[in-house]
Design a protein that fits this description.
48% of the residues lie in helices and 10% in strands. It has a 6-stranded parallel β-sheet, with helices on both faces.
Length: 244
Amino acid sequence: MGRSETGRRWPRSRNVRPVPLLLLDLDNTLLDRASAFRAFASALLADIGAPPSDLDWLIAADNDGFTSRYEVADALRLRYGLSATVVDIVEVLHEGVVAHSKLDPLVACAIQIAGNAGWVPVIVTNGVTRQQEAKIRNTGLNRYVAEWVISEEAGVRKPDSRIFEIAADRARMGLRGAWVIGDSPDADIAGAAKLGLPSVWLHRGRRWAEPRYQPTASAKDVVAAVAIALDHAHGHAHSHSMSR
């Protein structure tokens, strides 16, 4: 599933010059899924005639996308006596989030700056292939990244190290020097820790609570996270050249 759809010449060999991978999460990292779901949920509740006050219930039921779509669909069907099948409601849930997903121009700019600095950005995301790929393409993210790996089609989920190794293989690169950026302690930061890779955690206003491992740094958003990774790499390269 090759992906560089920009016409850009990404580095493709481990033997040319050392270029680092930037392994980026999708939901609530590159794309603001929380805002997309909130906008979709508001429209859905208005469409079925539910009170606006039910928005909090639906957002809680969704649990940042971690609740099975079938469970959310079943809950909607029971709560509002919907005649649609669970399968049909799942389809609405998938399509609704895709339709409301938008790429922040600042995020696009940050990825582009990383690419211009010699990094190779690759999306590594858990989720349903059709939905995640639709988000990547419909928002235009595909124009800014070299590759992407989605857990359903890869057959393995974060934090399993293999999904990051698949990402490196698709980019025809090694993992040496790679950074992981994401909002999930259990998926992104745990995955980075298993591989011994540096990471930036998008805290989204939360406190770090996992005692077994921790991110290299934390940031409020992906723009700041990319800046941290680039700054660390530049500092390391600078100190290395000074020591020679």
